[in-house]
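Lab notebook: predicted structure, single chain.

Context: the supervisor wants predicted structures on file for every construct in the current expression panel, including those that have not yet been purified. This is the next one on the list. No modifications to the sequence; it matches the entry in the shared construct table.
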Amino acid sequence: MESFAPNHARGPAFILEHGDPDGIDLAHSVWPSAAPDRRVDRFDHSSAGDRACSSRSFHARPASSNSDLAKVDAPSCWALQLIVDSTGLKLNGPGEWLVEKHGTTKRRSWHKLHIGLDAVSGEIVASTLTGRDIDDGSQVAALLDQVDGSVGVFMGDGAYDSADVYAAVEERHPDALVIVPPRAGAVASSQTSPTQRDGHIRNITARGRRGWQAASGYNRRALVEAQIGRYKRVIGNALRSHTEDARRAEVAIADHVLNRMNDLGRPKSVRVS
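Prediction complete. Output recorded below exactly as produced.
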């Protein structure tokens, strides 16, 4: 059985209790979780560096309990909410024009782009480019090493459900919440101290997978999928360079372009009443 890093200071994984439908409960200081709040007086489009806010607390349900609420320290809002995902980019190499000219077929080669998105600012804060056969989870350490500051939440799809991913996050950001759906049929570990993954498994059993997604904020992972779609619409779905170094530079430039567009196009709204 795989061994997952225990959730040290926080105890088991925590799932937000019902409160504000957008994941923010002002009355009980519930830390933001799931969907973005679209009310005009709640917009906050300032950059990560400009957000001056202190550590908050939020009401959470311990993974080992289905009744009593526990109040624990949430990550400071200075901490990054990192959502990761990957996508394929095809390679445009010499001879590609022959396919169009003569209608011949050939096996298309492609690389895999792994990105880390700041869920608050919408910026791409980390990216790697690998061969198509590289496992998504193997790039978590490389993505985390590119992040400046602390990570409060790490989120990814089921491809990141592995002991290596939990260990990589635990090693670099011990207080981070890891929100990754366990694979179907997963069972809790036999460790004395329940792990975050154990908490997810128990909450899925208690709430159902959809209930867990809503309560944990996992539905916010749609933000990184939208960013990948934006990348392919604006930049394209292919790499034009012919060497690995040039391709990595191409991706870095594309990330910078998208971040600049995001910064220029994002409204800066403030509450007026």
